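G., before I forget:
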Amino acid sequence: MQEHDSASSRPVGTALMGTERHPPRPTAPPGDLTTAVTDPGRELLTVLARHLPRIRAAAGPNDRDGTFPAETFHDFGRQGVLGATVPAELGGMGVSGLHDVAVALLRVAEADASTALALHAQFSRGITLTYEWRHGPPPTRELAERLLRAMARGEAVICGAVKDHGREVTRLRPDGSGGWLLSGRKTLVTMAPIATHFVVSAQAPVDGGPTLLYAPIVARDTPGLSVIHGWSGLGMRASGTLDLAFDNCPVPAGDVLERGSVGAVSDASLAGQAISSVAMLGIYAGVAQAARDLAVDTITRRSASPPSAARTLIAEIEARLYTLRAAASGALVAIDELSPRYDMDPDERGVRMMTPFQCAKLMVNELAAAVVDDCLTVVGGATYAAEHPLARLSRDVRAGRFMQPYTYADGVDYLSAQVLGLERDNNYVSIRATRPPDSR
Amino acid sequence: MQEHDSASSRPVGTALMGTERHPPRPTAPPGDLTTAVTDPGRELLTVLARHLPRIRAAAGPNDRDGTFPAETFHDFGRQGVLGATVPAELGGMGVSGLHDVAVALLRVAEADASTALALHAQFSRGITLTYEWRHGPPPTRELAERLLRAMARGEAVICGAVKDHGREVTRLRPDGSGGWLLSGRKTLVTMAPIATHFVVSAQAPVDGGPTLLYAPIVARDTPGLSVIHGWSGLGMRASGTLDLAFDNCPVPAGDVLERGSVGAVSDASLAGQAISSVAMLGIYAGVAQAARDLAVDTITRRSASPPSAARTLIAEIEARLYTLRAAASGALVAIDELSPRYDMDPDERGVRMMTPFQCAKLMVNELAAAVVDDCLTVVGGATYAAEHPLARLSRDVRAGRFMQPYTYADGVDYLSAQVLGLERDNNYVSIRATRPPDSR
Amino acid sequence: MQEHDSASSRPVGTALMGTERHPPRPTAPPGDLTTAVTDPGRELLTVLARHLPRIRAAAGPNDRDGTFPAETFHDFGRQGVLGATVPAELGGMGVSGLHDVAVALLRVAEADASTALALHAQFSRGITLTYEWRHGPPPTRELAERLLRAMARGEAVICGAVKDHGREVTRLRPDGSGGWLLSGRKTLVTMAPIATHFVVSAQAPVDGGPTLLYAPIVARDTPGLSVIHGWSGLGMRASGTLDLAFDNCPVPAGDVLERGSVGAVSDASLAGQAISSVAMLGIYAGVAQAARDLAVDTITRRSASPPSAARTLIAEIEARLYTLRAAASGALVAIDELSPRYDMDPDERGVRMMTPFQCAKLMVNELAAAVVDDCLTVVGGATYAAEHPLARLSRDVRAGRFMQPYTYADGVDYLSAQVLGLERDNNYVSIRATRPPDSR
Amino acid sequence: MQEHDSASSRPVGTALMGTERHPPRPTAPPGDLTTAVTDPGRELLTVLARHLPRIRAAAGPNDRDGTFPAETFHDFGRQGVLGATVPAELGGMGVSGLHDVAVALLRVAEADASTALALHAQFSRGITLTYEWRHGPPPTRELAERLLRAMARGEAVICGAVKDHGREVTRLRPDGSGGWLLSGRKTLVTMAPIATHFVVSAQAPVDGGPTLLYAPIVARDTPGLSVIHGWSGLGMRASGTLDLAFDNCPVPAGDVLERGSVGAVSDASLAGQAISSVAMLGIYAGVAQAARDLAVDTITRRSASPPSAARTLIAEIEARLYTLRAAASGALVAIDELSPRYDMDPDERGVRMMTPFQCAKLMVNELAAAVVDDCLTVVGGATYAAEHPLARLSRDVRAGRFMQPYTYADGVDYLSAQVLGLERDNNYVSIRATRPPDSR
């Protein structure tokens, strides 16, 4: 068995510095999501740092009351944060690396996970619209540019509305004059209180053909659109998560993005799904980090020596936190690497993005929840008060397993199919469209 | 709640390639220990690749019989592998990044963990002697250069002998004419069957002062040195792990490295301890990878659909394997970054190396064992035969928790003391020297 | 390896019934807390069954609003439930086996854990006062009889008030005329909204001697006593858990129970601590059972086949639920066995009660939380709404680890000290009294 | 929150004994498999106790060499142990409760798990043959009586041979004159070195009908039967587990038991499968207990205080061991209760036996392995020697997951189908017969 002696002892007087030659090594260590690796990423962190104290102070009350921190987001708008992921040439801050987006979300989530979750919606939208602006057909590019410029000015706040409410399917049908009419109801739309637009997942059945998938972009003041208050979450209660109802909302043809068809098994779509969601790993890393910091702070203030179980749990907490940050960072860096690889087979690129994301997501969800739980155990009964920060974190951290893509069950299906070479439609929007309504 | 629509759908005909502008991102992604990031590292992988089939074929029989693969190591010597971590200017291959050392060990461990464990001893020695050659006092530099040149030629094979056998402490005493006499017994000396030299941890009590720690380098043919066969491991059975006895072995003064004193609490020594051991994480990642590959291969050959539990376990295996590789990679890259930072406070540098290493080690040990166990469960009863490769892997993987530094218990003490700001002597050689013999 | 053929096949026509001789076997199988094993226990279940629908219906709203179900408890009083554990000769229902108490609490907790937790306070009080009535000195017997008779009539509702609020210690000092004055503040007093009396843990420093521990019984209308609303829990929100303040409350000498002295290491006290708390294991078993039933009910209503992960998790849920019920049942039966064993050494009796209780408590807490978490995962995102029953159960179940005796950290200390033969004061009231206030 | 004061304090001088009235409670507490609950069970423990020192002493060498302890079994034969489960009226010891069989196996497994595993084959055979003797058709009763009487005299040692070797199916075909000819190969036949008879699972295809399942009982000296040495296990290496080959072995019609047909979904067969295997839970409980005792013994001998991680792990070990014993005990008592219930619907009886067994088996396998692993971690590197008792236990304990019925994957399928009401053939002999050979 290998055991080692130390090589670091130095006779007194040995010069520490010298003309070292040492090998090339990764210039930007993946680190553990500690800091941004690009200039725009660093700029974003600097701007956000000014907001963190207020975000942290408001986290408790907003959680208790389920209040969305609208004023924080208005300040974000004024200072360019809502356009952080808009390209610089369109007036944005130009953060395009998901690693750096995740670091920013981690910092915000340490102060308040709900704020980070809502902010992610906007950051993610900037990145996916930038893709449309660069690669879409001309009308889409025009639409994307208009929206991105408005985001950069802090004038557009754009939410995704994906999940149907109950058993009803949200549908788009031709209005007879080249446009569309949208009807249905969506649930779990985050950042909705201040949204100016919604990107809505919708189906349009075609006679004799497959059901087509679309994403109409609907302005908030569109006739027939109503925002429905009512959802109250176990956690993430200040994320402004609401329902939307559409009653024959008119949508111009130019405001509708095509999203393929149901059952068209294409792994290429995995790329967009991974890109638009992977940065959320930073949120759960931030929640775990905040819990760990609270626990350590509490224990070190105590005058008694920590008991055996506290030392053991603190070591496990530290190791798990380190590991979940490494797993998330690995997935983020891998996806950032693959993102510009349009030379690759699109299906392969999609899979090579989604697989590390799903591996990391499964473990981040498990480890972050374990870290927070152990922090409550270490600190003790005081954490069982509704408004104790650790109680809030223990509710917030549980959101991770329900984030798309995928849930735990779908993640198991995806990963096992991938590893074992089984057939599977990996497009979760398509999967959901084909499931019975009671199993979506 | 944030759920997302896909941005990857593209209208047919959209050009995939374009003149992209995308932000700087880490040029050498930390990845997941998939490949080397330096030229010497890549060269080492190329050379090793030629040996892997034979190593893999011999793994089973050598494990059964407890036979060290001496011929493989002789070939390693002829092809420069035993000098892989010797600087190029001394005739070696010049691999100096621990990340790349770990990737090489991972590859070998996929074929046979015992071979990788033994090889690590030599790789680690190359790195620590290079440090002595660059930073030691003149006599030490001379000694180090001599040994390194011999390693590069495949003529020197140098083992560490750290752990005392039983309750006896290995001691060095002056021979009265400027040299030393070494007596004691060491256990768990890996790669011993082909060793030409041993670096032995020893104590020298000083009247009225603290006990000093030394590391005499003892040639195999030194009078009084005997190699004692007898240890038979639960796993890692082909690693050539033996005991050594020293009966007043003469050691010249110039062949003795100073190692500080017992109880001199210095975190600087953590750097050398981390550097000399962290690459072993690659070994356990390799064992887990080999188990996963065997399980996947077996399941995909079966004609029946995999049962629910197999799909769930395969997904968990994939996610855990990904995560343990990410954790190990993160620690390796961090230590490679800090390795040349002689500008830093030595204590801080030591801690900043050891902490990520211990976090990664704790989790790699846990996750790698879980991966292998689940692979046995998925494959079924056939794995319960002594010579099934998965049975071997399940024995090999359990060595990780006993590797220095630290065991699980000491790792918990180290990490919790670090996090909570408790006083602790972090030098495990010193710790061990002060413990009762029955608790080392 | 042992594999077995089936012995149950029967040739057609074989008579199934016969004149069997079979060996004696345990007449009352420990079962898994499925049903009561005594007549009074069965009677209690029958009475409770009538209340369960209303308790279940009120669970959600009461949790949301933090409302104590006072009307339910008034009905309990009218129907003798509040005197369930009062001896029949004093007018009570005569349930004296903790196994049956736990089964009753399990049933109630399936409907609402908060109600069960509050009810436990009364059930436990009946049992401990019965002990005082049987074994106390004459004045204590008289006091106990008076209170027990009032409980049986539904007129006395008696809470424990153990934990000091903040850093202040609740103290008893002589009033100069043979009685006492009580001052201090208690937190986490359950069932307080309807309490008629409080049993308060207090200290009385003695000049030159050890601090003595007392438990004054204080009527709600005592001058100087105020009930302080304000605590809002992460879960168990309808349990009526409040703070109490005592400002020189007069307490007659006859209403004060002696509780030994700080630091008087006596394992005999473990018996009372185990007896007064072990039935709470039934509450957490009930929470886990309710979560499992909700998850199974939801999955079986879905039209799609359950995915692989759902089948795996459902099997794990079933096995863990079975196991935690078996562990709880084992501890309850063991304590019921030892309860009348006054022939034994009191210290040994205390340890032999507390050890299985702590083993079961540690695992019930772990397994019940895992069961509930997995149920949320299986059912999906709908459970993440604040008022989803599974969200409530996931908050309620986490109370278990903070219940006395012991917390996880103290449980680890107790069990390891017991197993390894280390010295330790096992009286948690005494332990707490000697700790710095910030570590209690 | 409920916290409790202690009720056990007693004023000095209070009489401890009194004329107690306390309620009925389970007379034979299920306990935790500590001791037998029937007279024959206690007698068996007494006889076995005399053998334990030798069994314990031989465990290490027999494991190393893969030697079956034939002499121990010869002594068992002389002292009636091999007829322990034979009815007293046929000359046996008359142990018929599975709880007591499991306690006996637990005791033996604490000394040597291999011996216990082999002994289980004989104990189980006694119980299943007793069933045939009582309920079979007249020729079967006669056969069963003859074999049982021989077991009681120590002259018959009867192994099960269930699992086919490789892809070949063991088949029975008519010999043309009323008897049968048996051909095929079986693997993993435990206790084979001393077997006098083998009960072989075989199929007989019928033209135009379902494949019928039979269990011919084949004497060791039957022409065409050969015992094939060669299997060497990861653990359970002294259990005498071998392969058997049958080359047209003649079997008289009267020596063949009918076992239903492939695909005849009948839950009644679960009863026999549960009865014949559930006592093996005692073996894994014994392995875990032995590991715990070794670890505790080692730690308590050390002069240093146990580190934090050791205290935490020891507490976890104690709690898990307690819990796995409780789970096993619960399943055993439940099956003993149901065993004589021929009044019940046979399908329901089968399910009500198998479900607790599978719940307990899943958790016993998980918890016992965790206990043993943690024991190695606590004790340290010394346990990594091939012949360290804890190394042996860590190999032995892993057999549990491969024991029939069921493997982990089949157990998940069974339990989830049961809980969710899914269709499934629960007869594992039938399941295996219908699977592709590469997935059995």
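Chain D touches chain B through 50 residues (CB under 8 Å). The domain at 269-439 of chain D is CATH 1.20.140.10 (Butyryl-CoA Dehydrogenase, subunit A; domain 3).

More on Monday.
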